[in-house]
Structures are given as structure tokens and as C-alpha cells.
Amino acid sequence: MSADEPGTVVGARKGSPLVVGIADGEYFLASDVAPIVEHTRQVVYLDDGEMAVLSPDGFHTATIAHERVDKAVHEVEWDLAQIEKGGFDHFMLKEIFEQPTSVRNGMRGRLNTTEGLARLGGLNMTVEELRDIKRLIILACGTSWHAGLIGEYMIEDHARIPVEVEYASEFRYRNPIVDDGTTVIVISQSGETIDTLAAMREAQRKGARTLGIVNVVGSTIARESKGGVYIHAGPEIGVASTKAFTSQVTVLALLTLALGRQRAMARETGIEVARELDAIPQKIEQILERSDAVRAIAQKYSQRNNFIYLGRGYNFPVALEGALKLKEISYIHAEGYPAAEMKHGPIALIDENMPVVFLCPRDSAYEKVINNMMEVRARKGRIIAIATEGDKEVASLADHVLYIPQTLPMLQPMLSVIPLQLLAYHVAVLRGCDVDQPRNLAKSVTVE
Prior knowledge:
448 residues, alpha/beta, 5-stranded parallel beta sheet, 19 strands
């Protein structure tokens, strides 16, 4: 703004996102559509090197070099009610409880339970191109990186494609190898995460096909990637991501099914995966009904200063995610480890003051995790276990057990993460923390 032109506002995009809102006789500038949707659903997304000039008489868009650019006006599909708390105390709690709906929305129209197939038309790839994928690289940050780890395990297990999961913030600084047959998947809730966007551009410069898994329609990653999948989680206002995580895992499960059925996955296996995936929302609802039980556990440990989260296989990334949620919103130091790594250092921390959260559903690593649990118990650690319904052996070892329904190992993370989200939420509330806007954090990291 300038005192010389008091009726004009100029906004320019360089790196960070910028959106123009267009209403009846008024205009808005914001980094995201969320603060604009209360006033208008008509928006224009600026690209890097572009600017918008707003005045009482209208607006126009141009490059920073003052060359006029005609930009499409997009209709935001969000409803105002979606960005209100709807009777919940916090947006984060609302979004935790929205997960049955957001997971269903991620599957809608994409899952064939009769034939065990998944259809992801937005990938913009032919069947032959999908079959020609020799290697996948998944790029993401934070919670999305944890979802990517689960995707790695899924795809390697069932589609037999080598997968590497990289921190997007590190990828472009280490001269990565991207060869023929490599496809790069970038995961970002906002579609504007600066590190992920920069890593995607680096992969494109090296000749890779890039696919985006994002939530925000019209975001930069969605526009610049060669194809991809919207997770359709709806607006996520709480800074600590919850429903976006389970929706990302949902889309990765669909991708696994699509790739697996073109390769080694049998029709019967595909049908089993599809039917179990279809049942996940109802099983999440069952877990959410036990929120009060999670709160009772949170009351016992809300003043502890350290937590350890342990899991194996598909549940190792969930241990990382559970620890991240706790530290993000309650400011408690928490670490996630593969359970087998406990003996390689972290076991030195365990005493009667250390809560240890075990992810111990019935799977191929179950007995190994039980052995780890015995070692913690012998050192007087306090054990909180996430276990499969009906598991009495875990109940005999743990101080507290939170049960989840039975499902396939590859889908367990979508269930086992729910009690951990609730635990982090209740601990943070009991400590008097600002759950929706934790200190030092932003919803979208748009600067390095």
C-alpha cells in the first residue's frame, strides 16, 4: 500500500501462496481460502511472479513485470459450516471426529469392492504407464511424511514396486538420483508446503513424472504436478493435522490397490483389501465412542514431561505420528521409535516416571512387541497399549489398554492413530494449551 495511492492495494506472489477473493464490490488477499470463504467463494489463485492490483473500481492481475495476465476465477466448494466448530470445543477435536466422513469421501467413487479394484482417474496415466513404473519416490514433510512411510510399506508389500520416502526439505539439496521409470509422489495437505513444492520442481527438472496427493483444490502442487489425487478431507483448520493424515493413508491404500491389481495382487486379495477399506469408517466410529476412556488416561499422565511411542511394521510410522501430535500441541517431549530399537539406546530412559505407548495390534510382529513390553514392565515403565479387541495378553502387561477393531495389517494405521490423536488432544487441553494454534507453528509452512 502507498500513501500516494490510498485506494489501491497490490499483492504479489513470490514463493508463498497468495489468493484473491472476489465479492460484490470488495476484494480480499490471503494466503489461503479459509479466511476468505466467509465473505466469498469466488477466488483467483496467483502463480509465482504474478500480482493482483485491487481498487474500489475492480482488480486486475499481471506479472511483476507488468504484463497483463488473465486468470480463471474458481468457485470454492467449502461451506461456511465446515470451518466452524459445530459444537466442539476445538477445531482439532471436530476434525478428529470428522474422520469417518473424510475417509468415506476419500474413497467415494474410487473403490470397487465387488472386483477388488480402485479407480484413480486423476493420475492422468494409462494402464501401460502405470505398469511401467519401476520405482517410486515419495516426498513430504511432517505428518504427510509419516503417511508416506505407510504408503511405502503398502506399495512394496502388495505392488512389489521399490519405494523411497524422502523428507522434501532434504531432497533437492543432495543431488538425488531420478532415472527413467521413476515416478515421484508429493504429499501435502495444503498443496503449498514450500519444501515439498520446491522438491517437486527439482524432480521435474530431472525429468520425473510427478503426482500430487493434496487436499486443497487449486493449490500450487495440484496445478503444477502432472496428475494426482485429491483426498477430499474438507477444510482442516487445526494446525496439528488429523483427518488429513487418515485421508492421505486412504488414498495411498487406493493407489496400492490400483498398482497391486496390475501386478502380483490376486483378485481375492484385492477384494479383501477393498472390503476392509470400505469398513474402516465404521471402525473409526467405534474407536471415537471411547474418547472418555482416553481422557481418563490423559488425566493420569498430563503432567509428565517425556513420552516414548513404540511400534513395528506398519505401526512404526504411527508411533512417529503419535509422538509428533503430542509434542505439537502439549509441548511434551515425545519420541517415536521402532520397538526393536528400544534396546539400542532409548531403554536407558525408562523408569517409573516414563510413560511408554505401545502399538501392539495382532500382526506378524505381535510377539516381538510383547517381548519389548515385558522389558519395559521389568524396568517399571508405565505402559499404555493400543491393542486389538479381545487381546487379554496385552491387558496382563499394560497399565492401560485402548482397543481397536481387527483389520488387515496394511490398514491398521488408520485405526491405531485415532486413540493417539485423542490422547494428544486431551493431554493438551488438561495442560491448558492452545490446541488449535500451538506456539511457533503454522498450518502451512510456506517459507523455508
